[in-house]
Design goal:
The protein is an alpha/beta fold. The protein has 5 helices and 8 strands. The strands form 2 sheets. The protein has a 6-stranded mixed beta sheet with strand order 1-6-2-5-4-3. The longest helix has 15 residues.
Length: 164
C-alpha cells in the first residue's frame, strides 16, 4: 500500500480476541503489503475450531488514525468473514479506550506512551521539561510574555500546593 493512500476500515473491538487481525480478502483488495511470516500461526475461531482460512501466513503493518489517535501497528492476516479488522485484548489493554455503549462511541483518552502523541501531549511534555530543567528560554517560548513575571508559578512545587 502506498503511504499516501487512505482506507476507511470497519473495526470490531473484541475483548475475547487474542490479537490484532485483518481479513485476507480485505488486505488484498485494498493493496496492503503483506509480509510473509517465518513460522505460520494456527488460528482458532471463537468456537475453538481451526479457522477455515488456515494458518496465519502473513502480517501487515500500517498507520492507524482515529479521532486524533495515531499509531503504527502490525496485524495478522487471516479469514475474518464479514469483518475487515478485529482489535483484540492486547490492543484494548494497551489503549484502554473509553467506550459509551449506549451512544456507540469510542474515545481514545487513556492511551499509553507507545501511541503516537497528539500535539497537546507534546506541548504538555515540553512543559514538564521546563519544570525539570528550569529552562528559561523554553518557558518563554511556551508561556505568553505577559505572564513571564509569574514564572515561578509554572513550577512543579507551586502546582502541587493546595490552596487554603
Amino acid at each position: 500500500m502506498k503511504s499516501y493512500e487512505e482506507v476507511t476500515v470497519k473495526i470490531l473491538l473484541d475483548s475475547g480476541a487474542t490479537g490484532l487481525f485483518m481479513d485476507t480478502t480485505f488486505a488484498r483488495e485494498k493493496g496492503f503489503r503483506m509480509e510473509k511470516l517465518k513460522n505460520p500461526l494456527l488460528v482458532r475461531n471463537v468456537d475453538r475450531m481451526v479457522n477455515a482460512g488456515g494458518a496465519i501466513m502473513h502480517q501487515v503493518e500500517y498507520n492507524m488514525f482515529f479521532k486524533g489517535h495515531v499509531e503504527r501497528t502490525r496485524m495478522d492476516v487471516c479469514n475474518l468473514g464479514k469483518m475487515e479488522v478485529i482489535l483484540g485484548m492486547p490492543w484494548l489493554a494497551v489503549h484502554n479506550p473509553e467506550i459509551d455503549w449506549e451512544k456507540g462511541e469510542v474515545k481514545m483518552i487513556c492511551c499509553s506512551p507507545i501511541c503516537g502523541k497528539r500535539k497537546q501531549e507534546e506541548k504538555e511534555e515540553e512543559v514538564r521539561k521546563v519544570e525539570k530543567n528550569k529552562d528559561k528560554e523554553t518557558l518563554q517560548r511556551l508561556v505568553p510574555k505577559r505572564f513571564w513575571k509569574w514564572g515561578k508559578i509554572f513550577g512543579k512545587r507551586e502546582l502541587e500546593r493546595i490552596p487554603v
